[in-house]
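Issue 218. Parser rejects a valid record. Input:
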Amino acid sequence: MEGLRQYLLSIICASLICGIVLSMVKEEGARTAVKLLCGAVLAMTVVSPLFGLDPDRLAELIPDSLDGAGYVSEGENMARQAMAQHIKQACEAYILDKASSLHADVEVEITLGGEDQVPVAAELTGTASPNARAQLLSSLQGELGIPKENIRWTG
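Output the parser choked on:
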């Protein structure tokens, strides 16, 4: 009975791992290859008792490319890029909203930097009264932490 329990647990674990790996891969070409490899791993897991393969030997047969480290790294990079895009859009939307409330007609481009992807520079284009410019400059410096020397106005 313990052998059957072990067999079922190995199938469940292999299925879970394949599911996790598949959920991390978004690129269609890579996803097809990973599906194929996951299918092979699951098939080997299911038939391994028939051939007397032990789990250690099965692990040796799996190519190093399936170790997941590359997919994890790629997933982390994609998450960082998505977060940076979100931060950039949120900062730009905030400044545009502020400009609109000051009746300033501007466009803004925020540049992110550093490991934490924080706003480090801004370029504003358009027209604004001196008061609106001063308030926008204050918001960029005080609320977003962008140094005055990294804020550029054109137009």
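Fixed in the parser; the record now loads. DSSP finds five helices and three strands in the chain.
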